[in-house]
Design goal:
133 residues, alpha+beta, 4 strands
């Protein structure tokens, strides 16, 4: 994360409720433990989330406990939101949806402004369409 991205992340975390910079994996794992049926032995969702986050760690994240939402923020500076990252997030959205959990992606510019929500459903449909061909 560049210096400018760090400043933007700090600004967003301070001015928008719930956004955090550190502790992503532990916080998400704790949320999944609360949200998923503890009697169900196979939880591929945690593996999917961590496989994606090992390659594409979000700049910020937030958890909505009541609505079972994991929000991920990408600050567009040096690491642009490329097609491969969107594809990975779209597949993660689909995996989470199977468990009744929502993944939401947001973007912000390099100054922490212009926060936008990205709808991942069209990206997943495009990925699924490519897989069928």
């Amino acid at each position: 994360m560049s210096d400018l991205e760090q400043i933007a992340a700090k600004k967003i975390a301070m001015t928008h409720d719930g956004w955090k910079r550190f502790g992503y994996k532990k916080t998400v794992l704790d949320a999944l433990a609360r949200w998923l049926d503890k009697d169900e032995p196979d939880h591929d969702l945690a593996a999917s989330i961590f496989a994606v986050s090992d390659k594409y760690l979000p700049d910020l994240y937030k958890i909505d406990e009541d609505k079972k939402i994991i929000g991920l923020m990408e600050i567009e500076d040096y690491s642009k939101l490329r097609t491969d990252k969107l594809k990975a997030y779209s597949e993660l959205w689909h995996d989470a949806d199977f468990y009744g959990i929502t993944i939401e992606i947001y973007t912000a510019d390099r100054y922490g402004r212009n926060i936008e929500y990205l709808d991942l459903f069209p990206g997943f449909c495009h990925t699924a369409e490519e897989a069928i061909k």
